[in-house]
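Appendix B: complex inputs.
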Amino acid sequence: MVATKKTKKSLESSNSRLQLVLKRGKDALGYERTLKMIRQGKVKLVILANNCPPLKKSEIEYYTILAKIGVHHYSSNNIELATGCGKYYRVCTLAIIDPGDSDIFRSMPAQTSEK
Amino acid sequence: VGKFVKPGKVVLVLVGCYSGCKSIIVKNIDDGTSDRPYSHALVAGIDCYPRKLTAAMGKKKIAKRSKIKSFVKVYNHSHLMPTRYSVDIPLDRTVINKDVFRGPALKHKTQQEAKVEFEERNKTGKNKWFSQKLRF
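Resulting structure:
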């Protein structure tokens, strides 16, 4: 499996898209909330940090397979993901319910490693 | 993007005395009710799985080892793990419903109904995964 090295530029662009979603759209941050939203069928995309514990990662991926949602493996860790969201805590798992004005779905699915 | 927690879906119970047991969603309430303000589901599941059968066993032994003990319970969605499997057993909704938990006799009758359906399905050999104990 080739590890795609994301350049700094693309990281910044995905960050800015994330920020747009958080400002204009609806999201669920955190493992429990994402699972709840997935179960209710509201989620359009799930983003996982790269240091997400493997069991949690597998579980969320399984749920997304059942719900036919895309998963995006963010290229850095939960601290970076949270900073990208503008939060001061750590975020391992993030679900996007409504993208608002963001074009996150056009860009992210291309990088999605859906299993 | 779909709802996958639907009647007929096989789920694993994660919590309580039936944790690790496979069960089927009979009725799914997504938004909650006044006394359960969270999304929950009524499930009917297998408490004691049918045991393994071999060719060398006689009829009486097979009959004994194919017995299933079932349970009926209402669970919060976060206490269930959905799987990719689903079983379309015609569990009678008029018998298996939430009113059942009012009294033990009613509950027992419901569990009997579920047990009969599960045993029948197990005999036909379909949905094998459901009648196999989850080893963990």
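The two ends of chain A are 12 Å apart (CA to CA).
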